[in-house]
From TrEMBL:
PANTHER family: L-THREONINE DEHYDRATASE CATABOLIC TDCB, THREONINE DEHYDRATASE, MITOCHONDRIAL-RELATED. Its cofactor is pyridoxal 5'-phosphate. GO terms for molecular function: L-serine ammonia-lyase activity; pyridoxal phosphate binding; threonine deaminase activity. This is Threonine ammonia-lyase. It catalyses: L-serine = pyruvate + NH4(+). Keywords: Lyase, Pyridoxal phosphate. GO terms for biological process: isoleucine biosynthetic process; L-serine catabolic process; L-threonine catabolic process. CDD domains: ACT_ThrD-II-like, Thr-dehyd. It comes from the Bacteria. Belongs to the serine/threonine dehydratase family. Its EC number is 4.3.1.19. Residues 340-414 form the ACT domain. SUPFAM superfamilies: ACT-like, Tryptophan synthase beta subunit-like PLP-dependent enzymes.
Amino acid sequence: MADLSQSMSCDLSGLPVAPGDIHAAAETIRGAVVETPCSYSRTLSNICGCDIWLKFENLQFTSSFKERGALNRLTALTPEERARGVIAMSAGNHAQGVAYHASRLNIPATIVMPVGTPMVKVENTKHHGAEVVVTGATLEEAAAFARSHGEARGMIFVHPYDDPLVIAGQGTVGLEMLKAVPELDTLVVPIGGGGLISGTAIAAKSIKPSLRVLGVEAWLYPSMYNAIHDGNLPARGDTLAEGIAVKLPGKLTTEIVRRLVDDIALVNEAELERAVAALISIEKTVVEGAGAAGLAALMSDPSRFAGQKVGLVLSGGNIDTRLIASVLTRELAREGRLTQLSLDIPDRPGQLAAVAALLAEAGANIIEVSHQRTFSDLPAKATLLQLVIETRDSAHLDEVMARLSASGLSARCT
């Protein structure tokens, strides 16, 4: 995690967005956007050794903070601009925010989404009444198409992050967090293009200049980290946090981050998966990879936050149900609660029953069973037995493996 605090200042003068703009945005969106809870998590606090408050932006109607900036921008359109319609590019959450509030305001909307956008986000955007065009391998390619398509039709382009009105709308998250928990020491905020952290930092530091603001990016997309440090870490690949998979951050947002954000953390895919699983199992709340990035940073380096009062923004909850299932089962495997075993056994009656009985005595539950006789280098009178078993934890798994070994069975985790 890079410490930028020595070069940072709380001077808010000359920024593209002023605190007054964020307070004005709060009035503009009041009643049309949910003032989401900012709640204390006793269990996560105990696990991480600090006091943690969660800002549940996944509880917005479209399950994302993006509604705030989208509505603030749309409300500022003139009647003539509203008639011409709007166009936006997004991997999902900005798309839904624009589509939903454009529909409410009777503004025609077209949304361009890159190939690979989770289907749940594509379908939800369509359900809000927008025309959806899926094109471009990246957000940048989708943005280029959206701009050219919109210009040809006279539509207003609504940028997902590099727009003062959008930034001001996102900053209302910071106002609400400090209103709910004035004693916060640190805010941990996901970074994609930088709109959320920019607005939140301005709002929060205008109220409490001593407050620290930490940004979090996926290791696979360290775009703001590179911009701040003049780095060249690669940005590529499929990440669980596709909502913050941005190759180039905004110009306006980069300027704000340079001045106001104290640290930027990079989290890997396993850490993101662990955070998503923890929020489901502990808080009983569904959060997408980008929304769990803040908790991922905290869980991966708890000593950095020891004793602090920390606010985490759960920025969105739009995640495919199949992906949730995969994340949860992979986490069970990491915890030693689900394990795939391979055993070489004689190919004769009763062997499978003997193994099953032994596992039952050890307290393990068999989830899946398969035999492999053909594609194996075992002797013809032997077979490869593959099992998926459920155990209480890694210590219990060790006990099961010891029991199998003591019975003369050659078992290995695969």
